[in-house]
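Q: Hi! First time doing this. I have a protein sequence and I read that you can turn it into a structure. Is that right? Here it is:
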Amino acid sequence: MSGKRRAYGSFQQLLLFAFLLITALLVGVAARSMSQYSALMTESRDAAQRALTLSSAAQSLAEHSAAMERAGRQSLVLGDEVLRQRFSEAARDAREAIDQLTDSDLHLQAIQNWHAQHKRIESLMSGPPETAFTREAVMALQFRELDTLNTSIAQQVQFVIETQNNALTKRMEHAREWLMWQTIAASTLALGLALVFGIWLARPFKHIERAIVSLGQNRLNEPIDIRGPADVRRVSQQLEWLRLRLTELDADKARFLRHVSHELKTPLAALREGVSLLEEGVIGAMNPAQREVAQILQQNAMTLQSQIEALLSFNAAAFEARELRREPTPLRSLIEEQVDAQRLQWQAQGLTVHIEGEPVTLTVDPVKISAAIGNLLSNAIRFSPRNSVIAISLSATPTSACIDIADSGPGIAPHDRDRIFEPFFRGERQPEHTVKGTGIGLSIVQEYIAAHGGSVTLLSDGPGARFRIELPL
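A: Yes, that's right. Below is the predicted 3D structure, encoded as structure tokens:
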């Protein structure tokens, strides 16, 4: 089991996990934001309540102090016990009000000064009747001092309320900024997680796509082993089984073609030998009609033999395309070698071959790429009219190297363009006074180029045929 790759959960489970993780992150930030918002609202409500309590206590202090002054001064002048009782009640209410302010952030000295002033006023309520008017005058002055203290306390209360409001405002602003950064950070992290999970979960499907393309291009020598979730692993195993099955079928096809070709060549050789004996008159002279029939038989036997040999060549090329011997190869030198190798053919027709482009070096199988270029050049020579030009250009892009081979011939008929790479297909526009081709040259080119992961296409621009080979860098 140690040699096996670990299979993760299914794609659906991983997708659900990614969704839940991102959702949990966003919900967590939202919950924290709501908690902070609730705490700030509670604090704001409590601050408003404290401010209202302090303001009310300061106002009550002033009102009870005024009631104390009226009742106290009238009591001294009139000597009325009811007024004295009112003074005591007002004094009690004033003390309760000052006690409410004691727990706030007021200066303790101001509270102590108020209590001291209150005791001095209360002390004036006691004394002989003959000093009542004198004490009433002194009490008036003492109440002026008490009013000054009340005003100072009220100002301090207002300052405390404003200070608490400013502090709350700063905390709310800080909480708002912190919440904004939390939201930005959570959104960025959620986006990052989404991208990471998206790329990670999409990667196996790209490998699956490449594996399917490889199977479609008959590159059956590459094992398929795709990492990923359990269901992706199952698909990978099924594709690997399909690859092995196609490899077996391809091998069976190759064996069948070899056996059939071999079995056909033996009786075909006997048939050609017999026809030759008839034509040579070994078994007796033939009349003109019989000789014509013998010539027809000989011609068709030769055609059948060439087709069998072409079938064997194509089968061998398809098999050899899987065995690449790659090495760094300068493509321009490869093209020049093929042009030199076919010099007699294109010079015999008065053709001119132009090679353009900068040197490009690729790691390829030089034998197979050379064969592909040679087949395209041979077709261009075969279809080009006399005294025309064959243009070969070499170029490179950031991802591939391109080889274009263009002739000045009749080109490919529109209804033949989709079939020119099919084995044994010969298009409608064939050159006159030349031996008919077997129809496997372009198929072999496609096999060799596809084995390198490239492509060969027929371009639409140009009066003749223009083929492009693209090889990945």
